[in-house]
Amino acid sequence: MALRRPRHVRGAADPGGSPAGAEEAPGTPIDPAQLSFADRDTRWIAGRHAGAREVPHDSRTGRWPDGRPESVVPESLDRAGNVPPVVPAAGPSLRYPPDQGRRFGFPAGHLTDRPGTPAAGNGRAATAHWYTVAGPARPSDGAREADGLWLELSPGRLVEVPGGLMHTLHSGSPESLEGLCWELFRPGDTVRVSAHHRGLTEPTCVVLRDWRPGLRGALGDVPAVLTVLGSDPESGALRLGGAGRELQYPVTRAAAERHAEGHTVRLTPDNRLVPWSGAPERGDAVLLGCDEAGVLFAHGVPAGPVLLAGDGWADDDWIRGELAGARNGPAPCWP
């Protein structure tokens, strides 16, 4: 399944000198792994885009016929079957880099002010939906930690939800989540949220109802060594992981057939597979396990001892102690 870049799509100018996705020839296939932040198969991602609808941001402009207020909810824009246009970043990619989110993304109103949500002032919550987390929303100056989330409404359409708008429900009333450590949320996680209209004088908040962390939170922002646990050429996916954890990685049919079960791959932070050299490189993330004797090993890495560094653990030295205990056995063991 090859999704191709439309002839009319052009990207914004890139500060680095190259247009953001504008130089690729029309019809150039886009890597399925660059189409979405969702850790799902290619068929699912294509369906998510085809099912997306573009709605005007100003969906609550009112009028006063006969002296009575009446809301006007415009229909979706009639463009290419209502499927919203997308603007790829350089690559081309719809997985926008963290420092370019505000160039390509939208404000929270695209999530909170949508046709079909309850009218402001009625104190009711809209229907909750699942969305993919594109990453924590960090200040542009990089001086402070994240204060909110980027959510993917559909491939290529991100919205920034500030932490001050995020709430949880306590006894039916929204309670602010401001101050939550948003850095814990990683690309590929999924959250179930809904808009909650509290009153005419208060801004609509976003209620966080559920959170399903993915594997990437354990991998960090470094390349990761993973094992191919299986492939599905029909839907276009590889199952990557180890130690009882896995993620779906979208690929073309040819790529799914090329990566046999048991192969080792190296996944970069920008979601690309690069050649595996046969050994982890300095700074790579690996998934650890231990055998029945309590000996540590790295999934996907040829047999060899796992040595624990004596320094660099900072406040996480207790983790080293747990791992050392597993190595010296007997101790709690992981798959």
UniProtKB/TrEMBL annotation:
Biased composition range(s): Basic residues: 1-10
Source domain of life: Bacteria
Start-end of Low complexity biased regions: 12-28, 80-92
Extent of Basic and acidic residues compositional bias: 51-69
Region (Disordered): 1-98
Protein name: Uncharacterized protein
Organism: Streptomyces haneummycinicus
The organism's taxonomic lineage, starting at the top: Bacteria, Bacillati, Actinomycetota, Actinomycetes, Kitasatosporales
